[in-house]
Specification:
Layout: H1 6-11, E1 25-27, H2 39-42, E2 48-50, E3 70-72, E4 92-94, E5 117-119, H3 131-138, E6 144-145, E7 148-149, H4 152-160, H5 162-209, H6 216-222, H7 224-244, H8 251-277, E8 294-295, E9 301-306, E10 311-316, E11 327-331, E12 335-340, E13 343-348, E14 359-362, E15 369-374, H9 380-413
Parallel strand pairs: 1-2, 2-3, 3-4, 4-5, 5-6
Antiparallel strand pairs: 6-7, 8-13, 9-10, 10-15, 11-12, 12-13, 14-15
Length: 465
């Protein structure tokens, strides 16, 4: 049963900064409220009140709302108009789709002199003969009834036929009250039958679940799945019968439907919670003590053996926006375990490591968890060999670079190292003598190579060519 609480009203008063003492409008529709209460004490300044589509059976606790102008209680279980005399400023009243059968109860609205609009569509009283004439003649202040304007001629005619119409309405009310009494008895009988049937089902269920001997326990464990399927089929069959069974539309049937839906929803929630509690624990080690590889959070990872630094590095792709407080790292000599939001990630290491010297860091860009675990066995020779090979490779690279640079210098300085002839020196250049711009050119001195040892160069002798 849902009640009107202070917390509910404050949550619905967000437009008024959650203040309820100065609240002028509030909407409490579709809240499954079964009783109208507390509003006349907490919200004295209310002008507009929406209470449609609830389970309210009676109008009450609103008589002190002196400023109330519009009250909407459509789609509820109201059977009588009452307790509205204190709403002095009431101008509009919506009672659509309720169960009002006592049409004579509209006479209680005579005190609401400012009432201009009244809605009674969808109520049993609207099927009475002379319904509109009776309401128009009873409430002189009304301007609109069921969204239809009341004309002056209609009111005069209704007042003329009022005694006769009033007698007919009384007779129809008596018949309706007798019908409602039979419906209430039928609803109580049906509800009692349902309770008895449910009790029998519970008794049979408990008797079936309790074994007579210990030997029956394995058989029951094997047939747990079959029992679950049978129970599901029974529930589906019960739902089908409930929704296909013809039932009169009454306040009791409406309340019964609501409680049935609420019961089914609560049962589903209980089953869901039970499944969460019955979830078996994760197996991280066998009975013999063997550690297993487990990846419950289903994260990508890489395990690297850093021989240069003699350590093992684990890179676990943890979710980027996961808070670090939800991670728990446990490094053991032969395995590592990481809890990610309570879900274990466990990996067996290829070699023993030092847990005390291990470190865990979190990447600020990718969010990955990097765990560095130094190996327990220290290999010094491997480090020296590695350093010697590095030095030898460095010397080789330096020699290669110097050799390459020397070759480049020889190619540029010594033209005799070319593997092909120099075509530019096939023909010797002649000394040019004469006038013109040719004289401006610098004269090139040609060296004459000695053809033999006894050759003497005499400058007085003219050249042969």
């Amino acid at each position: 049963m849902v009640r009107i609480t202070e917390d509910l009203i404050r949550r619905r008063a967000e437009h008024n900064n959650c203040e309820i003492f100065s609240l002028e409008e509030i909407s409490l529709h579709q809240q499954e409220i079964e009783k109208l209460e507390h509003l006349d004490k907490w919200c004295r300044d209310l002008k507009i009140l929406y209470l449609q589509n609830n389970l309210i059976p009676k109008i009450e606790n609103v008589g002190k709302l002196k400023k109330l102008e519009y009250l909407n209680v459509a789609l509820n279980n109201i059977e009588r108009i009452e307790n509205l005399e204190g709403c002095e400023e009431l101008k509009k009243l919506d009672l659509t789709a309720n169960f009002i059968g006592e049409l004579s109860s509209v006479a209680s609205l005579r005190c609401n002199i400012h009432l201009k609009e009244l809605f009674l569509v969808g109520n049993p009283c609207t099927e009475f003969e002379g319904y509109r004439q009776f309401v128009v003649a009873t409430l002189h202040q009304l301007k609109y009834l069921d969204s239809k304007e009341i004309e002056r001629s209609e009111r005069i005619k209704a007042l003329q036929n009022y005694p006769e119409v009033k007698w007919k309405i009384r007779e129809q009310e008596r018949a309706h009250l007798l019908k409602r009494a039979r419906e209430k008895e039928e609803a109580q009988r049906r509800m009692q039958e349902r309770k008895d049937k449910k009790k029998k089902q519970m008794d049979s269920k408990f008797g079936f679940d309790s074994p007579d001997s210990p030997q029956e326990k394995p058989n029951q464990a094997e047939g747990a799945g079959e029992q679950e399927r049978c129970r599901t089929a029974e529930n589906d069959e019960e739902d089908r019968r409930f929704w296909e069974e013809p039932t009169p539309y009454t306040p009791e049937s409406r309340l019964e439907t609501h409680r049935y839906i609420e019961e089914k929803r609560r049962a589903k929630d209980n089953i869901r919670e039970a499944k969460k509690k019955e979830k078996p624990p994760w197996t991280l080690m066998t009975a013999e003590g063997k550690v297993l590889n487990v990846n419950v959070p289903k994260l990508h990872f890489s395990l690297k053996d850093d021989e240069e630094n003699n350590q093992i590095i684990l890179d676990l792709a943890v979710y980027r926006h996961l808070d670090t407080s939800l991670l728990d790292v446990d490094v053991q000599p032969t395995y590592i375990r990481v809890l990610v939001k309570g879900k274990p990630f466990q990996l067996v290491l290829p070699e023993e490591v030092k847990p005390d010297s291990s470190s865990a860091k979190r990447s600020q860009t990718t969010g990955h968890l990097v765990v560095t675990m130094p190996k327990a066995k220290e290999i010094i020779l491997a480090k020296q060999k590695v350093s010697a090979s590095i030095k030898h490779s460095d010397c080789n690279t330096q020699q290669k670079t110097t050799r390459r640079s020397g070759q480049v210098e020889k190619l540029e300085v010594d033209p005799s190292k070319y593997s092909f002839p120099d075509v530019t020196k096939i023909i010797q250049e002649k000394e040019r003598t004469g006038q013109g711009p040719i004289k401006l050119q610098p004269q090139k001195v040609t060296e004459v190579k000695k053809s033999s040892v006894d050759f003497e160069n005499n400058e007085d002798v003219p050249p042969l060519i």
